[in-house]
């Protein structure tokens, strides 16, 4: 019996005879998808009575599912464009106001610093 040696030496397991007991690996791809449920199809959803499907990275209305007319779509697109323009204008106004606030704050700090220096200077003279 070794004093500092390893006394535990497990037996090696014999190699497997077959890689898998399942015969699914023998099936072609389409049969496997059907058997294993891997055929998902395109994602679809129903939103406000309109059926949409996801194709090529965008949600597209399914044919015949849109119940509104062309004028309504044009009106909505025009309104959307107006809101985007208004949003851009408001963002510009916010940027201008922030710049004005920064400038006013910097001027205020400079004036406070000058005032403090004048107070210190007048105290030294006394």
Automatic annotation (TrEMBL):
<protein>
    <submittedName>
        <fullName>CBY1 protein</fullName>
    </submittedName>
</protein>
<dbReference type="GO" id="GO:0030178">
    <property type="term" value="P:negative regulation of Wnt signaling pathway"/>
</dbReference>
<feature type="coiled-coil region">
    <location>
        <begin position="66"/>
        <end position="121"/>
    </location>
</feature>
<keyword id="KW-0175">Coiled coil</keyword>
<dbReference type="Pfam" id="PF14645">
    <property type="entry name" value="Chibby"/>
</dbReference>
<dbReference type="GO" id="GO:0005634">
    <property type="term" value="C:nucleus"/>
</dbReference>
<dbReference type="InterPro" id="IPR028118">
    <property type="entry name" value="Chibby_fam"/>
</dbReference>
